[in-house]
Amino acid sequence: MADLKLEILVVPTYNTLTLAIADASTYPDGFVISAPSLEIVIPGLGSTIVSFVPNDYNVFNSGSLGITEAGEDLQPLPDGLYTITYSVAPAYQNYVTKNLMRVEQLQEKFDEAFMKLDMMQCDAPIKKQQKVELNTVYFLIQGSIAAANNCATDVANKLYLQAAKQLAYFSKNGCDCSGSNYLTNF
């Protein structure tokens, strides 16, 4: 089995309702894929094992992940740290695990705030300060993703929560600033 190299890729869907995972594994010639299994630990909801088609692109939603029942409307998948493990038989020997900081709901709110920023009518220093505030939120989001990719789960969660807090404050209050922070620091 020296040529067996399991690998999964989380593919961006830019949608709060879906999670896409592709099998990017290298299977040896003649290898029969047996008992493929995908376990997903969903933040706040626990672990679920879902059907996974090897050598393919698999898309999951709240129904296929067991969050909603059949016939119910699909719900946005929760943001937070997901742990995804793909295995084939024998599972104790052949598996790969990835951490993913899902930020689609927060990114959707960020996009809304960003679009409002470009439509606001205000003086240049305040507009520049608002861009600085949103850039800070963006870097916190990206830091959260990077931390999760490097198994720094506490840092990933702290950065996510800080980004959400700052974005909520910004969305509620504009930036509640005079523009002097931008003028002083930039």
Give an overview of the whole structure.
The protein is α+β, with helices and mostly antiparallel strands and 186 residues long. It has two domains: 8-102, Sandwich (Immunoglobulin-like), CATH 2.60.40; 104-185, no CATH class. It has four helices and seven strands; from the N terminus they run E-E-E-E-E-E-E-H-H-H-H. The chain has helices at 104-119, 124-149, 153-173, 180-185; strands spanning 8-11, 19-23, 37-42, 46-50, 57-60, 80-88, 94-102. Helix 1 (104-119) runs antiparallel to helix 2, helix 1 runs parallel beside helix 3 (153-173) and helix 2 packs antiparallel against helix 3. The protein starts with 7 loop residues before the first strand and ends with a helix. 22% of the residues are buried.
List the helices and strands and how they pair.
Elements: E1 8-11, E2 19-23, E3 37-42, E4 46-50, E5 57-60, E6 80-88, E7 94-102, H1 104-119, H2 124-149, H3 153-173, H4 180-185
Antiparallel strand pairs: 1-2, 2-5, 3-4, 3-6, 6-7
